[in-house]
Design brief:
alpha+beta; 4-stranded mixed sheet; 8 helices; 45% helix; binds iron/sulfur cluster
Length: 213
């Protein structure tokens, strides 16, 4: 029968609508409003499971990926250091080639400085794959959770530059605490290994010098 599918679909909607009230009577409270999104997005939900976006938003899982951002660290004196060294790996691995980097040079020596003069991402082309973040050797580029980037004039605003892309390490920690800790621990371990290797080399050199005397 034509339209059977539509009637069936509307029946599912009606069932959830009615179940919202039945559930409230059964539990003696307004689950839709009192228990909020946590209940509505759980597997136990019986009634309506819709979210009134943009007033309400579903929690974002840690591994959610949107347009990447650049990380900077800030020391106690307020000095900000961009983690990016402009090595160019992210631009090389980016499948749609939407990253481009302006390298900076020492004006006296002409040698490259490991801090980009500018860094651009065309966010209309970015496909949120996360490869740039995966391949960055310095944990300098991270996938963001901010998905509310709609604008009226994309040609004017959707090429993000370094200024727009930079966000503090604390922000990274707040949206991806698990990954932040993993990377921070790995960095500490690497630094400790490096320090141990230097100390061992120095001790060997000192022993050699002492043997010669
Ligand atoms: S973000 Fe990472 S991979 Fe990209 S240029 Fe900077 S340091 Fe290299
Ligand atoms: S997320 Fe993917 S497409 Fe977007 S800038 Fe990174 S590598 Fe390129």
């Amino acid at each position: 029968m034509y339209g059977k599918g539509i009637i069936k679909g509307l029946g599912v909607t009606l069932k959830h609508f009615l179940d919202t009230y039945i559930d409230d009577i059964r539990m003696g409270k307004k689950r839709y409003t009192d228990e909020g999104i946590e209940y509505r997005s759980s597997k136990d939900v019986r009634g309506l499971f819709t979210v009134q976006y943009p007033e309400e938003k579903l929690p974002t899982p840690e591994e959610f990926r949107f347009v990447p951002f650049l990380v900077y660290d800030e020391d106690e004196a307020g000095v900000q250091t961009t983690r990016c060294t402009s090595c160019g790996i992210c631009a090389k691995v980016c499948p749609p080639q939407c990253i481009w980097i302006e390298r900076s040079e020492d004006p006296k020596t002409g040698r490259p400085i490991p801090d980009p003069a500018n860094f651009f991402i065309d966010i209309d082309i970015c496909m949120n794959c996360g490869l740039c973040a995966e391949f960055c050797p310095f944990d300098a580029i991270i996938m963001d959770h901010d998905y509310e980037l709609a604008v009226f004039d994309r040609f004017e605003t959707n090429i993000f530059d370094k200024e727009k892309l930079l966000k503090p390490a604390e922000y990274y920690q707040s949206i991806r605490p698990y990954n932040y800790k993993l990377q921070a621990d790995a960095r500490v371990e690497k630094e400790a290994k490096k320090a141990a290797a230097i100390a061992a080399r120095e001790a060997k050199a000192a022993a050699k010098a002492a043997a010669k005397e």
